[in-house]
């Protein structure tokens, strides 16, 4: 880990996405402090593939297995961050964590996460607790009824590995309710 850290920092320093995000964040912060801007509309990010295709979970049914490996490729059981368009407005979206549950070549199959407590009693969501994917340490829920196609090159970063027991809970619901095997 210590030997890889300097290389990782150099890669981050050369990242155009990181530089653009930092510049936008600084500009927005200064505008808010000056009182000259409301929260920005979240438009589609330029230059990066986005997760804009989603289908009902049963339509993408396949074998689900836990196989995370921190090898630079996202695998089932890992939580990654990507831009996901809103269902009701495909011209806008949000950078959010997604649980990888499968893959079609370079397209990941993901289930989006939310930290909104109102999902607690929604039958289409399952609680997965807290983890390093949420920097505020909030409890999270995974949406089961919609699978996102996530272009692998659209992943912003690896967020975390979901523990096996919790992944198995998500997988059991996919098998029982959505015909996954």
UniProtKB/TrEMBL annotation:
Gene3D superfamilies tied to this protein: 2.30.30.110
GO molecular function, one term: DNA binding
Superkingdom per UniProt: Bacteria
Pfam families xref list: PemK_toxin
InterPro entries assigned: PemK-like, Plasmid_toxin/cell-grow_inhib
Keywords: Toxin-antitoxin system
Keyword match Zinc: no
Keyword Magnesium: no
Family: Belongs to the PemK/MazF family.
Identification of the protein by name: PemK-like protein
